[in-house]
Specification:
Glutaredoxin; 4 strands; 85 residues; 24% strand; four-stranded mixed sheet
């Protein structure tokens, strides 16, 4: 059985774009079976400096996708990653 992929959604609390991105990701059938981890960038070292102006950011390993997160962009990005891993 293959390893479960974990995608991280980096954002901040009270961020409407981050909440919309989470709703989008949860509604995408192509991500079924993928673990989603929500990370508040204010709680990680240099998170605000690194991600603050870019949130929401979707991350898998070293691969990152900056906002805007749309169904089309996320799907294309995820397909590329799935093929390369």
């Amino acid at each position: 059985m293959g390893e479960v992929k974990t995608l991280a959604l980096l954002g901040t609390t009270d961020c409407s774009l981050c909440e919309s991105a989470l709703d989008l990701l949860m509604s995408m059938p192509e991500l079924r079976g993928v673990r989603l981890q929500v990370i508040d960038v204010t709680r990680i070292d240099d998170g605000v400096e690194r991600y603050g102006a870019r949130v929401p950011v979707l991350r898998y390993s070293k691969h990152e996708l900056d906002a805007p997160l749309t169904r089309e962009r996320v799907s294309a990005w995820y397909r590329r990653i799935a093929q390369s891993v």
